[in-house]
Amino acid sequence: MSMFSIFGISGSAVSAQSQRLNVVASNLANVDAVAGPDGQAYKARQVVFQTVPYGSAGDAGVRVDAVTENPTAGRRVHEPANPAADAEGYVTHSNVNPVEEMVNMISASRSYQNNIEVMNTAKNLLLKTLQIGQ
């Protein structure tokens, strides 16, 4: 494994964490959503990562394998005056938990920052190695 593979590994992690942040932002934007275009309440989404082992091509790292929906039911609130209410007067809201999503956002943001720092450190080490040769 060469020193340059660090950039590929960290770059793949930065890309994956960026997608994770986008999914979290979408979830947070739909915390209070009642019904989508299909008439169903918004379902929280989660990113599933997959490691890419170091192979002959030298492409190690991580990638987004899938974006899955949380299957749990949304919270039901009794609001008979709401036009989206069912026959019993309940409105089904999204199943997004804003506290969990904020924790997920902080975790993704820190992972993103750490991988940027890894790339900056590797760049500085390579520059210092070049300066030794002068």
UniProtKB/TrEMBL annotation:
**Which keywords does this Swiss-Prot/TrEMBL entry list?**
Bacterial flagellum, Cell projection, Cilium, Flagellum
Q: Where in the cell is it found?
A: Bacterial flagellum basal body
Q: Where is the signal peptide?
A: none
Q: Does the keyword Methyltransferase apply?
A: no
Q: Which residues form the Flagellar basal-body/hook protein C-terminal domain?
A: 88-132
Q: Name one Pfam family in it.
A: Flg_bb_rod
Q: Where's the Flagellar basal body rod protein N-terminal domain?
A: 10-36
Give the primary localization class: other
Quaternary structure and partners:
The basal body constitutes a major portion of the flagellar organelle and consists of four rings (L,P,S, and M) mounted on a central rod. The rod consists of about 26 subunits of FlgG in the distal portion, and FlgB, FlgC and FlgF are thought to build up the proximal portion of the rod with about 6 subunits each.
Record family assignment = Belongs to the flagella basal body rod proteins family.
Protein name (record): Flagellar basal-body rod protein FlgC
Q: Which organism is it from?
A: Variovorax humicola
From the UniProt record, report the name of the gene that encodes this protein: flgC
